[in-house]
């Protein structure tokens, strides 16, 4: 309730959550557009992350505008996040979903809790990202791969279909409890029957292709033995 009240006030004053966050951000992260991090505005809890949805691919010319067909992506992501957490698949807690209709289009924002000390799997294996200022050692990298394989198996078991599953949409965090994995970018996720969600081998092949693609863009490589750990996960299902 407190987060919803804050969001309503922010939209009333500034027109959108994204604009509000941009004015008081304590940090920014990269994405398709700027992603703002702000100190928790309602208490002493974790910082909040405010993200505007942006188009990609051949429709990127629309920037942050989406046709008003069906439910807004932010609401879909909120609902999917709640369901995945119920199914024991970790994903950042969604606090607020917002949509701003205008004519045929809408814009949308999402507010989540910040996952501390986190990097994408791509940044863990290839370097990069702000959390990489403290390098990931070989044991942590191998644990991140093992946890990712576990995540893929869980996704298949409960029937999660993630159309954008790749190494940038797997968040790896480290704390005293060890390495934790979270699934992000859920706005196009679907919950299906396990038989329709793919299989471990296919998902891990997609993952390895995405890692190799990102590595080519960054002119970098992932050690062969780490790539084999992912492939072995597919063979041992």
Automatic annotation (TrEMBL):
<dbReference type="InterPro" id="IPR011009">
    <property type="entry name" value="Kinase-like_dom_sf"/>
</dbReference>
<dbReference type="Pfam" id="PF06293">
    <property type="entry name" value="Kdo"/>
</dbReference>
<protein>
    <recommendedName>
        <fullName>Protein kinase domain-containing protein</fullName>
    </recommendedName>
</protein>
């Amino acid at each position: 309730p407190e987060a919803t009240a804050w969001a309503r006030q922010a939209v009333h004053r500034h027109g959108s959550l994204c604009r509000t966050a941009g004015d008081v951000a304590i940090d920014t992260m990269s994405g398709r557009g700027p992603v703002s991090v702000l100190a928790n505005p309602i208490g002493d809890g974790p910082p909040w992350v405010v993200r505007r949805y942006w188009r990609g691919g051949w429709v990127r010319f629309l920037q942050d505008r989406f046709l008003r067909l069906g439910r807004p992506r932010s609401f879909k992501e909120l609902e999917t996040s709640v369901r995945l957490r119920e199914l024991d698949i970790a994903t950042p807690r969604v606090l607020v979903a917002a949509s701003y209709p205008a004519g045929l289009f809408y814009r949308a924002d999402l507010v989540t809790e910040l996952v501390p000390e986190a990097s994408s799997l791509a940044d863990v294996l290839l370097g990069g990202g702000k959390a990489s200022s403290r390098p990931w050692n070989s044991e942590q990298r191998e644990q991140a791969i093992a946890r990712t394989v576990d995540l893929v198996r869980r996704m298949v078991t409960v029937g999660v279909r993630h159309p954008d599953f790749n190494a940038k949409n797997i968040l790896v965090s480290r704390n005293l409890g060890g390495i934790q994995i979270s699934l992000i970018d859920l706005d196009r996720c679907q919950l299906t029957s396990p038989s329709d969600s793919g299989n471990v081998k296919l998902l891990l092949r997609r993952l390895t292709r995405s890692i190799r693609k990102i590595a080519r863009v960054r002119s970098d490589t992932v050690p062969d033995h780490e790539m084999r750990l992912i492939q072995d996960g597919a063979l041992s299902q």
